[in-house]
Amino acid sequence: MIRVSSPSRIHISLIDMCGDLGRVDGGVGFAVKLPRTVVTAEPCETFRVEGPRADEVELKLSPLGLKGCLRIVSTPPPHVGLGSTTQLLLSSAKALTLLNGVNMNAFELAEMVGRGGTSGIGVRVFEDGGFVIDFGHALELKGRPLPSGASLTTPPPSIRLRFPESWRVIMVFPEEGGPYDEKKEVNVFLEKTPLEPTECDRVSRIVLMMLIPSIITEDLDLFGKAVDALQSVGFKKIENDIQGLEVKEVMRVVKSVVGFAGLSSMGPLVYTVVESDKVRMVKSKIERMVPEGFKVIASPPDNEGAKYG
Q1: Which of 103, 129, 266, 278 could bridge across to 305 with cysteines, CB 3.0–4.6 Å?
Q2: pTM score
Q3: What stretches of 43-120 adopt beta strand conformation (E)?
């Protein structure tokens, strides 16, 4: 039996939804150990998938013509901001290909299942974990900003830094999952982009002069200031504006407790980061204050990526 276990990811921000410099997208994010996507594969005479979201996996992998029985043991709720679709498809593809004696890296798998067309964070953290900056796609190839599920481009180039091991990530999201599927995401992208270059300029400065240095120097105060600043500029401002009242209340609560809060991807997941010795106290306080129906979890960062064998 082959077992693949992959981390989730927090997507901090897209960088350039303007495209006036000839590239579009780009982004920053990082891997968290929990919640995990776990898929197993066993030999059988056909191709079969069972477990949550099995139909999605079967649709993407059946054209490969490989045999194997996949079982989705666990997967985070879809469309909350944890990158669950990318991790599920990559984990399933990795399990199936390994079962059939084919060893492919995350980038090859992503091309095969059609992920990484907008953000490269999920693909890179599957391979390596850590804090990732990706550099987007050539506009002439992609055409215009669109979500990964609606893009035909390949995963973008990226660099990886080690996320501080002494930090802990607190995440708050609806237990029932998020309201945005890829069709709704496409509509947001079509209606709201491209942005004015001044917006993208500001995002880029915050990422380059605040966010990246905060990771290198392990400066949590600077990290919080960078995340806070990103919420009101660029495409992240649009993502925040379209949230419902309950998510906006969660943002207010988390910020009141910790001092900063961020929205992962298009939400509704709200995250913050604290030192490890404070995580239990902070998590408990947030749990008492958030609206009913929201789950609060804490996780170490993941600097390793998917585990399999």
Answers
A1: 129
A2: 0.95
A3: 47-50, 68-74
| Residue in 84, 21, 30 with CA at minimum distance from that of residue 57 | 84
HSE value, Cβ hemisphere, 13 Å, CA-based, for 308: 28
Residue partners of 20: CB distance under 8 A and separation at least 6? 194, 197, 200
What would the DSSP string read from start to end of 177-193? --S--HHHHHHHHHHH-
CA distance 31 to 9: 4
Computed from CA positions of residues 39, 279, 282, 10, in that sequence, does the dihedral angle turn out positive or negative?
negative
Residues facing 271 on adjacent strands: 171, 262
Collapse the DSSP code of 277 into the 3-class scheme (helix H, G, I; strand E, B; otherwise coil) and give the result: helix
Helix (H) or strand (E) run with residue 265 in it: none
The number of beta carbons lying within 10 Å of the beta carbon of residue 44 is 12
Give percent of the chain above pLDDT 90: 86
- Neighbouring CB atoms inside 10 A of 216's CB total 11
Listed in sequence order, the residues at least 6 apart from 185 whose beta carbon sits closer than 8 Å to its beta carbon are 147, 149, 150, 266
Structurally, how many domains does the chain consist of? 1
Q: How far is CA 199 from CA 21, 230, 265, 300, in A?
A: 13, 10, 17, 32
Q: Which of 164, 174, 210, 149 is nearest to 13 (CA)?
A: 210
Is 136's pLDDT higher than 90? yes
* Distance separating alpha carbons of residues 7 and 304, to the nearest angstrom: 9
Residue % of the chain over a pLDDT of 70: 96
- Structural domain range at position 85: 2-308
β-strand pairing of 47-50 with 23-42: unpaired
Task: Check which CATH number belongs to the domain holding 227 and give it.
Answer: 3.30.230.120
**Mean pLDDT over residues 143-149, rounded?**
62
